# Entry
Amino acid sequence: MLNDRIAMMALTSLPSLDCTDTKLHQLARVVAHYYDAELGKVGLGTTQYSLLTEVLSHGPMRPCDLAEAMSLSPSTLTRSLKPLIVTGWLALAPGIDGRTRSVSITAAGRRKCAEGLPRWNSAQARVHQLLGGRNVSAMHALLEDCSARMSATNP
# Structure
């Protein structure tokens, strides 16, 4: 009981500033809704489409390199890859030295990417329309700057 009161006092004494993490997640969820709704029409989620296009763009790659390129943890990548491998859109094979593995896109995965592209373009156009071109440009520049600053001082 005393611990509950102390915890509540600590919470009520927090400054009434907006939490940057919360704001970023809120925007990301709202934006993702548009992409997921469009990509869902062809049986894809945003993360699935991103994984397919990343592997398509960069060719076969080690899972650790794919995780790094997409800023995903290895465990998140593993969970996200499984359904794409099961559907036959991606393949996991031995890597060049026998100790590693390599993720590659299959012919079915290429077709799924092509099927998803008009849906992704539609979502992109709608989000840009809703936000406004000037805001999108400013947001992209700001996010790139913030990412660079945060990466330079990564704990």
In short: The beta strands are 90-94, 101-105.
